[in-house]
Write a structure and sequence with these properties.
This protein is an alpha/beta fold and 506 residues long. It contains ten helices and 26 strands. It has two domains: 2-10 and 388-502, Golgi alpha-mannosidase II (Immunoglobulin-like, Sandwich); 19-383, TIM Barrel (Alpha-Beta Barrel), CATH 3.20.20.80. 24% of the residues lie in helices and 26% in strands. Helix 3 (133-144) crosses helix 4, helix 6 (224-233) packs parallel to helix 8 (259-281) and helix 8 (259-281) packs parallel to helix 9 (325-340). Bound molecules: alpha-L-arabinofuranose (AHR). The site of alpha-L-arabinofuranose has 11 residues, from loops.
């Protein structure tokens, strides 16, 4: 059985330019993300600095634009200075967030060296859990000040004479969460974030500063937190963060497949709150969103349970979720939501990059491979160009426990006027039927099909592994074609597709 989805595509439905920072990721000192993830001296592919070049190559292939570092919950107990200077003198410390031991072999300078090789922009999170204004200024001066003061000279002695030039700074992490080391009330955090931002701007007025928003939209303080923080910090920050993780719960496939509806509502609610504060304060500036943690994460599974008691291992196996075909469809749909909100989401970070709820997996001493979720991210990053276009669509609906009624299809498009490239990203997130695609392309002039690829597996729970890394990959969709100026074809149930069209060469 099949039914139809009609997309209305028009270059006039412009949302905002595609922002490269939409395609950020996250590297936390958590589990094996750093140690035996990006960094593994002695690995057959390790370079002279101990970085795995197989992971570097996959990071570039993924199309990652920026990487948030060093946490996450980890950062709220982190002493940045433990991670700089001669490695043999660095102290090992307990990481309270993940009940692990960090040997501090990798720190700020190593991360910056890695970021350069990976061709990503750094986003650095400071500790506002156990620390405050002074340490924030110290790490800022160490990272960014030209030589000539104590901390920048120390950086030069440690092998980095040039300033690292980090532009984006997160003012703490998830400070609204009771699990956070140094958790604060909205008022306490608003004060500390404002004072920290003010001091950091005294050092460098051009920094882009991100205040902590809520850890997720289900937090009891969601909304009130954003309002309190922005009311005090509005003039001193550029963005407010949002975090969210989805998973299939209680075998409720339908609600999971509709997760992007929640992301849409989450973004709309944060925008409304920020704009309410803007109106109250009578400001012109608009606060943007840094969606600096988002993904599918099966938090209730054993993989996510930190060690306990006297066990404080170095780089334990933690949060190593295996993603299936359905997870990849949801991730592709979440990217559709982020792109659709490019007018207010200025930056986003898939959490995380390697091993820890990640698109890239590694075996210590062995292979690196792509999870299912790698593919929609890489293809969207590669082909989203020019302007984001809102797509109006008419599609069948499906019922689900979490959202009531959801559209069986969701889509966004990007249009590059200069090259004449149109990319359509579309999901069939209904779990019953294939959908017949139909879209009038006439508003773009003549377009021809470049390629259509679909990620789908007859078993939505099929996954990739070290031994079978290509079980779930996007395949050419031979069904999709242009006929009489219309894009037509078929989208299988639970699938993510990319359709690329282009103006014919003159
Ligand atoms: O990404 C995993 C964890 O999720 C991060 O450390 C934390 O910020 C969030 O709760």
């Amino acid at each position: 059985m099949s039914s139809q989805v009609t997309l209305t595509l028009n270059p006039a439905f412009r949302v905002a330019p595609v922002r490269r920072r939409t395609f950020g990721a996250f590297v936390e000192h958590l589990g094996r993300c750093v140690y035996s993830g990006i960094f593994e001296p002695g690995h057959p592919t390790a370079d002279e600095d101990g970085f795995r070049t197989d992971v570097l190559a996959l990071t570039r292939e993924l199309g990652v634009s920026s990487v948030r570092y060093p946490g996450g919950n980890f950062v709220s107990g982190y002493r940045w200075e433990d991670g700089v200077g001669p490695v043999e003198q660095r102290p090992a410390r307990h990481d309270l967030a993940w009940h692990s031991t960090d040997p501090n072999t990798v720190g700020l300078d190593e991360f910056m060296a890695w970021a350069k090789k990976a061709e990503v922009e750094p986003m650095y999170a400071i500790n506002l859990g156990t620390r405050g204004v002074e340490e924030a200024l110290d790490v800022l001066q160490y990272a960014n000040a030209p030589q000539g003061i104590a901390l920048s000279d120390q950086r030069a002695e440690n092998g980095s004479p040039e300033p690292h030039g980090i532009r984006m700074w997160c003012l703490g992490n998830e400070m609204d969460g009771p699990w956070q080391t140094g958790h604060k009330t909205a008022e306490e955090y608003a004060r500390l974030a404002t004072e920290t931002a003010r001091a950091m701007r005294q050092e460098d007025p051009d920094l882009e500063l991100i205040a902590c928003g809520s850890s997720n939209s289900q937090m009891p303080t969601f909304g009130a937190w954003e309002k309190a923080v922005l009311t005090e910090a509005y003039d001193h920050v550029d963005m407010i963060s949002a975090h969210v993780y989805y998973s299939e719960k209680d075998d409720d496939q339908a609600s999971f497949l509709a997760s992007a509806d929640d992301m849409d509502q989450f973004i709309d609610a944060v925008v409304a709150t920020a704009d309410h504060v803007r109106a109250t304060l009578k400001r012109d500036k608009r606060i943007m969103i840094s969606f600096d943690e988002w993904n599918v994460w099966y938090q209730h599974r054993a993989e996510s349970r930190p060690p306990s008691g006297d066990d404080w291992p170095v780089a334990p196996v933690l949060l190593e979720d295996t993603y299936n075909a359905m997870d990849a469809v949801v991730v592709g749909n979440l990217l559709i939501s982020l792109l659709r909100h490019s007018d207010r989401v200025a930056s986003a970070s898939l959490a995380q990059l390697v091993n820890v709820i990640a698109p890239i997996m590694t075996e210590p001493g062995g292979a690196a491979w792509k999870q299912t979720t790698f593919h929609p991210f890489a293809l969207t990053s590669q082909h989203a160009k020019g302007e984001v276009l809102d797509v109006r669509l008419a599609a069948p609906t499906f019922e689900n426990a979490r959202f009531g009624t959801s559209s069986a299809a969701d889509a966004v498009a990007t249009w590059d006027e200069e090259s004449g490239d149109l990319a359509v990203f579309v999901v069939n997130r209904g779990n019953q039927d294939a959908l017949d695609l139909d879209a009038d392309l006439s508003a773009f002039g003549e377009l021809e099909l470049v390629e259509a690829v679909t990620l789908h597996h007859e078993d939505p729970y099929a996954a990739n592994s070290k031994d079978a890394p290509d079980t779930v990959t996007p395949q050419p969709n031979e069904n999709i074609r242009v006929e009489g100026g219309r894009l037509v074809g078929s989208l299988p149930e639970i699938s993510w597709s990319l359709v690329r069209l282009s103006r014919p060469a003159a």
